[in-house]
TrEMBL record:
Residues 8-63 form the Complex 1 LYR protein domain. Transmembrane segments: none annotated. Belongs to the complex I LYR family. This is Complex 1 LYR protein domain-containing protein. The lineage of its organism: Eukaryota, Metazoa, Chordata, Craniata, Vertebrata. Coiled coil: none annotated. InterPro entries: Complex1_LYR_dom, Complex1_LYR_LYRM4, ISC_assembly_LYR. GO terms for cellular component: L-cysteine desulfurase complex; mitochondrion. It comes from Poecilia mexicana.
């Protein structure tokens, strides 16, 4: 993997973790964080440039989905539980 591609992958990973941690609900937040980490770990060994590009596209689509869901979750935020308290 080229250095620029590697930095793009790491950047996408960090952004996805940051966005996932913004879910107002504890359950959604931990689920999203776990899914992001597991997906990146599962594809850690991918070296094929076309496969990396495809995975990056999928990751960017998932990032957009996470961002939409976070904003929807904040609009319809229910009463917080003890676990959700800041």
């Amino acid at each position: 993997m080229a250095a620029s591609t590697r930095s793009q992958v790491i950047s996408l990973y960090k952004i996805m973790l940051k966005e996932s941690s913004r879910f107002p609900s504890y359950n959604y937040r931990t689920y999203a964080l776990r899914r992001v980490r597991d997906a990146f770990r599962a594809n850690r060994e991918v070296e094929d440039p076309k496969a990396v590009e495809r995975l990056m596209d999928e990751g960017e689509q998932m990032l957009a989905l996470i961002q939409r869901q976070v904003s929807i979750g904040k609009m319809y935020e229910a009463q917080r539980t003890v676990v959700d308290a800041p």
